[in-house]
Amino acid sequence: MHTPTHSPDSWLLEVNNLSCGYGGDSVVRDVSFALSHGDIGCLLGPSGCGKSTILRALAGFLPLNSGEISLLSQAISLPGRTLAPEKRRVGMVFQDYALFPHLTIADNVGFGLRNMSKAEKHQKVAELLDVVHLQDLANNYPHELSGGQQQRVALARALAPEPTLILLDEPFSNLDADLRRRLSLDVRDILKTLGISAILVTHDQQEAFAMCDQVAVLRDGQIQQWDVPYNL
Fold first, then answer.
1. Helices assigned H by DSSP within 111-224
2. What is the DSSP secondary structure assignment for residue 104, as one 8-state letter?
3. How far apart (Å, rounded) are the C-alpha atoms in residues 140 and 150?
4. Are 216 and 42 in contact (CB under 8 A)?
5. 8 Å CB contact between 50 and 34
6. Rounded to whole angstroms, how far apart are CA atoms 86 and 19?
7. Spatial CA neighbour of 77 closest among 91, 92, 63
8. CA distance 117 to 135
9. Is residue 132 within 8 Å of residue 190, measured between CB atoms?
10. What is the DSSP letter of 175?
């Protein structure tokens, strides 16, 4: 167990003895960690070590073979019982941005806001575009934006429904090194300003250490160490 000692009610996310994988095989075995409110955690390791498998389990895309995932002290994944992805208040930002090419930037950001009046939705989208510094591009389309701008749109869209947790799956890997560094710090600032917790998946140690409060070093489907960057 790699969980630091806090009082249990201070955890936002708890993962206990998680095992999961594909077709009955466990890619990830006996993984445990916990994340505090407002913290950014990282799953760091080489390709094929199980980072994205854990992320898919957190998102609700993958059932568990054993163990438990809890969010705000409520079990959201157990063997044989998985709360649907859209019901767990978890946002996801993908490696390839996954923006809708036929929608404007504003409509992309507002896509998940179904239970709002038109005026409320418009205001929410404007606020988020302001947060990610894209307020001047609301009426543009994704193909007119740079990779870094598209990634910020994807972040704003994930933030729009006010999720409890954001999952970031190698979000900067399509960008050049300079932009990666700048954008990872930008994203950290945005999440910290909004007080939103996140889990980042990356194979880039610099990115992990610059952006995250807690880092899990993964190897062959198991956590070697879960600690603050300084201690690692």
1. 118-131, 147-159, 177-194, 205-211
2. -
3. 11
4. yes
5. no
6. 22
7. 63
8. 20
9. yes
10. S
d(CA 92, CA 97): 10
Tell me the C-alpha distance between 213 and 20, whole Å: 25
Structure tokens at 83: 């709360």
Q: What pLDDT does residue 220 have?
A: 93
CA distance 151 to 71: 26
Residue 173, both tokens: 């890997």
DSSP codes, 9-63: GGEEEEEEEEEE-STT--SEEEEEEEEETT-EEEEE--TTSSHHHHHHHHHTSS-
- Residues 52 and 203: their CA atoms lie apart, in Å, by 11
Residue-level pLDDT, tens digit, the chain, 232 residues: 444 445 556 799 999 999 999 887 889 999 999 999 999 999 999 999 999 999 999 999 999 999 999 999 999 999 999 999 989 999 999 888 889 999 999 999 999 898 889 999 999 999 999 999 999 999 999 999 999 999 999 999 999 999 999 999 999 888 888 888 999 999 999 999 999 999 999 999 999 999 999 999 999 999 999 999 999 8
Rounded CA separation 104/227 (Å): 41
For tokens 């250490």, name the residue.
209
15 phi and psi angles, rounded to 5 deg: -120, 120
Distance CA 75, CA 56 (A): 16
Decide if 142 contacts 96 (C-beta within 8 A). Answer: no
Query: Structure tokens of 23?
Result: 């077709």
